[in-house]
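Renewal narrative, Specific Aim 1. Our central claim is that a sequence can be written position by position from structural information alone. The example that follows is taken directly from our test logs and has not been curated for this report. It begins with the structure tokens describing the chain, in the order in which they were read.
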């Protein structure tokens, strides 16, 4: 019986993290050790070093509910590039406890392409998410306390937009009434919780360039509106300093290693379906100073994570990617061709052919909308047949895009050499990186640009509520910010049932809100929500600890 992901990780013999740091020129003096195999990096002595590496983004087609190995491919690619002599650093997001205990499991890779210590990374790690949640909830407490203690700013309790958060899938907390009880217990009002990765503080954390920028962004966050419609910020209730104090250590990138002893920064973790879906700018820009190549990933399909990586993260950080890897699996292509999840292991060339339209659209978007060079990485699963693999390769080559078979799950870096060689070649090819829209456009035009260019929709419709919110955003001067689309990950449309490459549809925006600290406008579409729920059989039911403290069942 093959080993599970956690069994593979627990059999590894990790290097001391100080030895991993030496591989990229970091001394022990620049590390803050969290035990033997984890460390935070003090970025202050490094801030003036030049960025020299080429930047590689790993993205994917629209996934199945189980996920299809984008992180695994990212880890394996970094290992493969190091294996063939290219000094490469990996940059990933930290996993949220919601998916770990829910349906998807962890996000530390899989098989023989993992970052370790896998259990720590998937659970509490270095406490970054706890710090973000504490800062979020401190702000909520200070806001409600301001209202209780006389409401000097004239805040309208019905227009409080700052919600509390918890890093767990808990549908029971989506909508609550709080402040019940005596007069001393606060003012009763409708409220709710978001999952921590949907908190604006998570976005601010990942988009800040340094501690000063972090505090300035925290100060700008809009948390409520007054009775006469004026925005109230965190600075107005003097909360930014205390929040920054909670985050001063968390903002330092976390250094860990792959199973093959190669360095990896794992830092920050916004979801890509409800947030911008990329690891921290601080981790990425630090990595660019210490390697020749940096491999990073963006969440879910390229219509979500990659679009936001380009239009938000790259725009704000001044980054320009050198190559893009689009991960596809036979399973996900068959799913997009209409095959039920339970039947994805059976050969079905007809469904595979139909699902290839999804891959083609993602490739076209990367090449034609964003002007970047791309390679398709077929992430091989044991159930894939040779006929299916041949069909995907043939179809991609006919479309003019190179294909590399990725076997990193089974073979580690050795199984990613073909992909690594193609990525290195692409990095030396000229490209013409551009954005999907200009920020000087109106909010409506930017929404339409994303919908028509990236999703291939016919346009965008705003509900009456969203139209009212649009007028407010325009009046307050937030109309020149980038857009962060909150949309289902399973479809190019806002309907998760429309698989493949749908046509003749429109995107409905039901809510527009500003994330002034992060620096973008969030557009909620379809039924997307900021607090997920657990499935009927959550992954948590299979996780346990042995008497000697060994964790089992984590994947």
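The sequence written for that structure reads:
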């Amino acid at each position: 019986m093959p080993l599970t992901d956690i069994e593979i990780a627990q059999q590894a013999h990790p290097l001391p993290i100080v030895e991993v740091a030496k591989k990229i020129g970091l001394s022990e003096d620049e590390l803050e050790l969290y035990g033997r195999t984890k460390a935070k990096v003090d970025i202050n002595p490094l801030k003036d070093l030049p960025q020299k590496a080429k930047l590689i983004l790993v993205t994917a087609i629209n996934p199945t509910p189980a996920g299809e190995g984008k992180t695994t491919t990212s880890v394996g690619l970094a290992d493969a590039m190091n294996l063939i002599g290219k000094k490469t650093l990996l940059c990933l997001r930290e996993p949220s406890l919601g998916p770990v205990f829910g349906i998807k499991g962890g996000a530390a890779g899989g098989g023989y392409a993992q970052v370790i210590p896998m259990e720590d990374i998937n659970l509490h790690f270095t406490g970054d998410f706890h710090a973000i949640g504490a800062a979020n909830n401190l702000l909520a407490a200070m806001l409600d306390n301001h209202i209780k203690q006389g409401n000097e700013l004239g805040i309208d309790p019905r227009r409080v937009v700052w919600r509390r958060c918890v890093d767990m899938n808990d549908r029971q907390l989506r909508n609550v009434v709080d402040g019940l009880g005596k007069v001393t217990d606060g003012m009763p009002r409708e409220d709710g919780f978001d999952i921590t990765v949907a908190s604006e503080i998570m976005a601010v954390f990942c988009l800040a360039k340094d501690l000063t920028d972090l505090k300035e962004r925290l100060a700008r966050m809009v948390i409520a509106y007054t009775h006469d419609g004026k925005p109230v910020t965190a600075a107005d209730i003097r909360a930014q300093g205390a929040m920054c104090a909670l985050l001063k250590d968390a903002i330092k990138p976390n250094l860990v290693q792959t199973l093959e002893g190669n360095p990896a920064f794992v830092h920050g973790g916004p979801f890509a379906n409800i947030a911008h879906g990329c690891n921290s700018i601080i981790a990425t820009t630090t990595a660019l100073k210490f390697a020749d190549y940096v491999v990073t990933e963006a969440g879910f399909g390229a219509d979500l994570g990659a679009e936001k990586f380009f239009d938000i993260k790259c725009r704000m950080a001044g980054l320009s990617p050198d190559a893009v890897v689009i991960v596809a699996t036979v399973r996900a292509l068959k799913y997009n061709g209409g095959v039920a999840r339970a039947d994805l292991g059976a050969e079905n060339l007809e469904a595979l052919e139909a699902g290839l339209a999804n891959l083609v659209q993602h490739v076209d978007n990367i090449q034609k909308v964003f002007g970047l060079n791309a390679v398709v990485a077929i992430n091989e699963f044991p159930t894939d047949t040779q006929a299916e693999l041949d069909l995907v390769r043939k179809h991609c080559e006919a479309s003019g895009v190179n294909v590399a078979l990725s076997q990193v799950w089974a073979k580690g870096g050795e199984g990613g050499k073909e992909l690594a060689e193609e990525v290195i070649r692409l990095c030396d090819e000229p490209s013409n990186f551009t954005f999907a829209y200009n920020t000087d456009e109106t909010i409506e035009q930017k929404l339409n640009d994303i919908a028509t260019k990236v999703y291939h929709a016919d346009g965008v419709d705003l509900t009456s509520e969203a139209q009212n919110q649009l007028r407010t955003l325009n009046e307050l001067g937030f109309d020149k910010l980038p857009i962060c689309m909150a949309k289902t990950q399973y479809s190019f449309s806002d309907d998760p049932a429309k698989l493949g490459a749908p046509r003749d549809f429109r995107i409905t925006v039901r809510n527009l809100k500003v994330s002034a600290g992060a620096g973008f406008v969030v557009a909620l579409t379809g039924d997307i929500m900021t607090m997920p729920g657990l499935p009927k059989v959550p992954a948590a039911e299979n996780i346990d600890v042995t008497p000697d403290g060994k964790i089992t069942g984590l994947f």
